[in-house]
Amino acid sequence: MQYQLTEEQLMIRDNVRKLAQEVVAPRAGEIDATGEYPWDIYRLFAEQDLLGLSIPEEYGGSGADLLSYCLCVEEVAKVCATSSLIIAGQELGMFPLLLAGNEEQKKEWLPKIAKGEVMIAFGLTEQGAGSDVSSLQTRAVRKGDGYVLNGSKCFITNGGLADVYTVFATTAPEKGAKGISVFLVEKDTPGFSTGKKEEKMGIRGSQTTELVFEDVYVPAANLIGEEGQGFAVAMTTLDKTRPGIGAQALGIAQGAFDVALRYAQEREQFGKPIASFQGIQFMLADMAAAIEAARQLVYKTACAMDQAARGEISQKEASRFSAMAKMVASDTAMRVTTDAVQILGGYGYTREFPVERMMRDAKITQIYEGTNQIQRVVIAKSLLS
User: Fold this and answer.
1) So which residues are the catalytic ones?
2) Distance from C-alpha of 159 to C-alpha of 92, rounded to nearest angstrom
3) How many angstroms separate the CA atoms of 340 and 287, rounded?
4) In the Cβ-directed half-sphere of 246, how many Cα atoms lie within 13 Å?
5) CA 384 → CA 15, 313, 379, distances in Å?
6) What is the helix (H) or strand (E) element at residue 297, kind and residue range?
7) Residue 113 and residue 117: Cα distance in Å, rounded?
8) What residues contact 322, with CB distance under 8 A and at least 6 apart?
9) 103 class by beta-carbon count within 10 Å (0-12 exposed, 13-18 middle, 19+ buried)
10) What is the pairing mode between strands 208-219 and 192-197?
11) What is the pLDDT of residues 241-298, one digit of tens each?
């Protein structure tokens, strides 16, 4: 599971880095301050083919490998976590369709998703079913040539903005996890509405809401895969997307470190730059080492996931690395951003510098797409089974 960036991957990374630094970075503070969704950045990413990175070329996407996707997320997250979530949210929403959708569904939706003509969101979490996914209560009851959905979801990224949702519901409650199925639900479907919009600590420009289903009729043609496959689809999706959250956390950490390093070299106390003091030097050394360790794990994991897809390693091993990458990178992001604020002192606590925003943004990477406590459960189960 070794990696070495190819010329193509380096080119993708450098192009996205330039785009992020020149266009996204100047908008980052305003996006956070207003809490408004950055449609201009969404359109920019669509124009640059960043919304369909993992979608195969035959369906209008870039056909990029997972490492290339992670590189893109990392570069954007260095300057704006909200903007990196535009890429990651689209990826999360479309993966159930890519994994289990039939040919007709893929041909209808994936090209539109790749072009940014359609925003897609992932509808799994409920108030009583966050870490315990198998306890979800949203019901899908067969009726005629379709299903009727009732229930609600919470903490849905791009809720109320997306054009279509991959929604998980139980079609056989008595079967527990094996009774969960997944459906495509379009936003204008009667009975489908958006509930409370969350006011969040970080990633403030990303809209997060409840979804409400009241006798929502969904045609049987919108069932993704077969009845009862939903739990497996959800878990495989998260295995595929957690390295992207690791990359997001990695980018946030690197962005905060870059600010802290420059500041330490410029800020003077006692007649010399604070970077000349051993206490600051040790902090910078620890931050740099932790970031590089996380980077190696995230990149290795991206390669491992692709190797598992080719049958070169077991899916169990790849899943373990996926959990490790998300856990280690997000814990690193929280530590590094906190230290960055400390190095900047009083200025770090103000909005004059971006590190306070980065610290707030970093926290969610320890929580969404599976809390880090759940990642530890996944890792331990893999080691012991």
Assistant:
1) 369
2) 13
3) 9
4) 33
5) 42, 18, 9
6) helix 278-309
7) 6
8) 238, 239, 240, 242, 243, 301, 304, 305
9) exposed
10) antiparallel
11) 999 999 999 999 999 999 999 999 999 999 999 999 999 999 999 999 999 999 999 9
